[in-house]
Amino acid sequence: MGLNLIALAIPLFFVGIGVELALARRRGLSVYRLGDAISDMGCGVLNQLVSNLLGGAVLLAAYEALFTHRLFDLPTTWLPWVAALLGVEFAYYWWHRLSHEVNLLWAAHVVHHHSEDYNLAVALRQSVTTWVTTLPFYLPLALLGVPTLPFAVMLGLSTLYQFWIHTELVPPLGFLEKWLNTPSLHRVHHAINPQYLDKNHGATFSVFDRLFGTYAPEVEPCVYGTTTPLKSFNPLWAQVERYVELLRLARLAPTVRDALKVFVASPAWRPGWMGEATRRDPLVKYDVEASRGVRRYVFWQCLVLLVATFGFLMWGVALLPMPWKLLAASWLAVSATTIPGLLEGRSWARPLEAARWVGALAGVATMTLTAT
After folding, report:
1. What does each C-alpha distance from 364 to 38, 224, 328, 349, 370 come to in angstroms?
2. What is the C-alpha to C-alpha distance for residues 35 and 323, in angstroms, rounded to an integer?
3. Helices within 126-265 (DSSP H only)
4. Measured between alpha carbons, how far is 165 from 177 in angstroms, rounded to an integer?
5. Helix, strand, coil percentages for the chain (3-state, nearest 5)
6. Do residues 166 and 123 touch, judged by C-beta distance below 8 A?
7. Which of 37, 73, 152, 306 fits as disulfide partner to 1, beta carbons 3.0 to 4.6 Å?
């Protein structure tokens, strides 16, 4: 149920992005860059493919299995919904907070923070492994007696709420920020300003941040991104880059204890044997130069990818046999990777782009022949 809410909302996401672009232009602001936005959407495509083909089903199946062994039964018809609302928020807060404090969890969550811009497209930038890291935080709600339907709905609504807070165009909202997560509070969360690091972890509400001492208001302009920059628009590399780095650091470790600590320590832990980390220049954003023709091609191919992804999520996942699902998902994943590669001028991008369209034509031809 929760995942269907997200798929149904995809057209509204892009209406929101269009409104944000129009308002920004009216104010004389530039809040989008082509490469960064395409990377955000590519990460969103990969996330939704994995969520709809695997992650979401595993989460809900595990949740339902645990619910059959629940410790409590919640009386009345409304209490399960209230418990789901508060439980999802509480679990999200601790998952989110620990995802900034534990390297292995950060390796999944960092994908959402790579963007050096801050706009509604950043809300779509998600990791394909997040669903794994959330399991230990959400599954206890099943044992506590929160039914699967209220849990799934509240999880979906929580995700939808977080879309609108990814914008620079909404100012601080005063007293509302004592209770609700807002664009201003979430800008702080995405900022690498020293006083803003690891603050404002709530999803819908700011109550737990205030209660547990991680609340920070917006008091100076935010610089977005990560302290160690990705320097790539490739959404596939974004998904694995931090895992690769953790494995590299573990191999460098002088002791087994240090090697294990690499995965459970804070991202801020940096002993001398690791060497110096690459630091982000707060005044410089990663970008590339490309010809007008390449930029136009990339832009339109991104639109094709988004329409195809929406169609696949809405109808293909339910109607296609599994072999065709996997082929379609693979084509979409290759597309999400190749399109920013073309913009960056990667040597592998043009051959892969040709292969991508040959594969698409072969697939359509095969399906047509099979249907007849």
Report:
1. 26, 42, 11, 22, 10
2. 32
3. 130-138, 140-143, 148-164, 183-190, 207-212, 235-252, 256-264
4. 12
5. 70, 0, 30
6. yes
7. 152
Pick the closest to residue 99 from 271, 267, 277 (CA basis). Answer: 267
Tokens of 249: 């650091």
Cα 138 to Cα 178: distance, rounded to the nearest angstrom = 25
What is the rounded CA–CA span in Å between residue 97 and residue 201?
Answer: 6
Place of tokens 């664009």: 183
Look up residue 349 and give its amino acid.
A
Q: How far apart are CA 110 and CA 161, in angstroms?
A: 20
User: Scanning the structure block, which residue is given the tokens 């595993």?
Assistant: 58
What are the structure tokens assigned to 222, written together? 């935010």
Residue 24 to residue 21: CA distance in whole angstroms: 5
What is the SS3 assignment for 292? helix
DSSP state of 165: T
Query: Residue 318 in 3-state DSSP?
Result: helix
Bridge partners of 105?
A: none
Report d(CA 5, CA 205) in Å as an integer. 20
Encode 185-199: b = buried (16+ Cβ within 10 Å), e = exposed.
Answer: bbbbbbbbbeebeeb
What are the average pLDDT values for consecutive 10-residue runs of the chain, which has 372 residues? 67 94 95 97 96 84 95 91 97 98 98 98 96 96 96 94 97 96 98 96 98 97 95 97 97 96 96 89 93 97 95 91 93 97 97 95 85 68
Distance CA 65, CA 83 (A): 19
In the prediction, which pLDDT does 239 show? Answer: 98
Q: Tokens 């780095």, residue?
A: 245
Residue 338: Cβ-neighbour burial (10 angstroms; 0-12, 13-18, 19+): buried
Alpha helices in 191-291 (DSSP H): 207-212, 235-252, 256-264
Phi-psi region of 321 (alpha: psi -120 to 50; beta: other; left: phi over 0): beta
Type of residue at 26: R
